[in-house]
Design a protein that fits this description.
This protein is mainly alpha-helical and 169 residues long. The chain contains 6 helices and no strands. The protein has helices spanning 2-36, 43-57, 59-64, 80-114, 128-153, 161-164. It is elongated.
């Protein structure tokens, strides 16, 4: 099961990387279009869709690598038993919020599909298409959050404590 979950997180990260490359292409095409006096309709909207998709698809991988921002000021000053329970509570709350986020993201994409909602820009893209990447990223993030919650309840630390200090900027 661990290999399957890790593959899911890495696949989402790879898709996020492809979205970033697509974003770069859109920005370069926009710049070239301005310099060479041609216009590609909706290119700015597509750049925005790709940027949002990259952000959402990278959420799970970022969580599993321990790269999300954590405020440990209160946590580090508690006794170990209280730290463990506060960490469990935080992971449970995060998993619940991630599940709600995934549910409402899927619901938004479905409603956009059902109502035939289209972009207001001149490309008239059906909005469910870019919203699908947001929903898929939110689903994978919810799975990763549940995974971290289970890891925390099994007693293994969700993130290695010794490397956390290295990430301060």
């Amino acid at each position: 099961m661990r290999k399957t979950l890790d593959f899911l997180y890495m696949s989402a990260a790879a898709l996020a990387a492809l979205f970033m490359i697509g974003l770069l292409v859109m920005v370069l095409l926009s710049i070239l279009g301005r310099q060479l006096h041609f216009n590609i309709p909706g290119i700015d909207a597509y750049a925005g869709y790709l940027m949002a998709g990259a952000g959402f698809m990278a959420l799970a991988h970022t969580l599993k690598r321990g790269e999300h921002i954590r405020v440990t000021l209160v946590l580090q000053n508690l006794p170990p038993a209280a730290q463990r329970w506060l960490e469990r509570w935080a992971m449970g709350a995060a998993a619940l919020l991630a599940l709600l986020f995934a549910w409402y993201s899927m619901r938004l994409a479905w409603q956009s599909y059902d109502y035939h909602d289209i972009s207001t820009s001149n490309d008239a893209t059906p909005l469910w298409i870019p919203q699908l990447s947001m929903a898929l990223g939110a689903i994978v993030f919810a799975v990763a959050s549940l995974d971290e919650f289970v890891i925390e309840w099994r007693g293994r630390p969700a993130k290695p404590a010794e490397t956390e200090a290295l990430r301060h900027e």
